[in-house]
Every structure is written in C-alpha cells, then in structure tokens.
Amino acid sequence: MPDDIQWLVPLPEIKSRYGTNSIFGEYFTEISRGRTVLEMPITATTAGGARGGVHGGVLASLADIGVVAAVLSTCRVGEQMQGTSELNISYLRPAVGSKVRVESNVIKKGRTLAVGDVDLLSDQGKLIAKARVTYSISQTG
User: Fold this and answer.
1) Whole domain around residue 106: which residue ranges?
2) Residues of the chain under the 50 pLDDT cut
3) Rg (alpha carbons) of the chain, rounded to whole number
4) d(Cα 68, Cα 83) in Å, to the nearest integer?
5) pLDDT tens digit sequence for 40-61
6) Which of 56, 62, 52, 140 is nearest to 101 (CA)?
7) Count of domains in the chain?
8) DSSP state, 124?
9) Alpha carbon 74 to chain centroid distance?
10) Phi and psi for 114 in degrees, rounded to 5?
C-alpha cells in the first residue's frame, strides 16, 4: 500500500484501544492492515458451553471483536465505522484447552460494507469455529 495513505487510526492505537477494553481477558498478539490475531485464555468465567468448553456466545463475540479491529485497521480518514450488520458462525467442536486463538482477515472492503473471515482455533491448532462478519462503514468526507 502507498505510504501517503491517511489512515483513520494508527495500528498501535488499535492495539491499545482494544487491549484495555478486554471483556473476556482477550488480548491482541498481532495487528496489521486488514488482519488481527487475538487470544483468550479459557477460564471458568468463559466456559459453560458444550463439554465444559467456551460458551458459543463468547466465541461469536471474539469473532466480532477481531473483525472490528481488522476493519478499523483498513479505514482511512473520511470513513467511519458503523456496526456489525451480520455475523454467521459455525461451531465445529467444543472450545476446550487453555486458550482460543482468533485469526481475522478482511476479505473485501467497499464504500459501505466490509466482510471479514474468522478462524477460531484451539491451543492445539484445531479449528473450533468458522465465522463470517459483515461490518457497515459510512463515508464522512
């Protein structure tokens, strides 16, 4: 990407903004333009789903958090984040172990919508769930 792009938010600010507002103990391990990786330790608070694994609502929230940050990393001055328009998640196996890894990638960003693809992985690297998140964007200038 060209160096003269005016990004809405610098990458370090995205990491600090979302790192301090952790809901489930999640934290970002990687943020680049259009991609984020976050991890969440599995605790008694986040468990409660199938076979003592992480509750599905927590996994869906992690997918949303990952895509929001990934989309924000691609927004330029004059664009504004609006909110999640759609979230679809397929649960493939119980989320058990010590942590969940969430890898989010923006696969398409237009003027009004951005679509992100999310893999939620166990600490063994097994696919726990697959999500697709659509996020609304508006043009302010």
Assistant:
1) 11-139
2) none
3) 15
4) 8
5) 999 888 887 767 789 999 999 9
6) 62
7) 1
8) T
9) 13
10) -130, 140
- Give the distance, in angstroms, between the CA of residue 69 and the centroid of all CA atoms in the same chain: 6
Q: Is residue 6 part of a domain?
A: no
The CATH number of whichever domain residue 90 belongs to comes to: 3.10.129.10
- b vs e for 50-70, b when ≥16 Cβ sit within 10 Å of the residue's Cβ? eeebbbbebbbbbbbbbbbbb
User: For 77, phi and psi rounded to 5 degrees?
Assistant: -55, 135
Write out the two tokens for 22. 């952790």
With respect to residue 22, please indicate whether it lies within any of the assigned structural domains: yes
Task: Tell me 65's DSSP state.
Answer: H
Q: Considering the domain boundaries, does residue 4 fall inside one? A: no
105 CB contacts (<8 Å, ≥6 apart)? 34, 35, 70, 116, 117, 118
Find where tokens 């984040």 sit: 81
Closest CA to 130 of 84, 92, 96, 87: 92
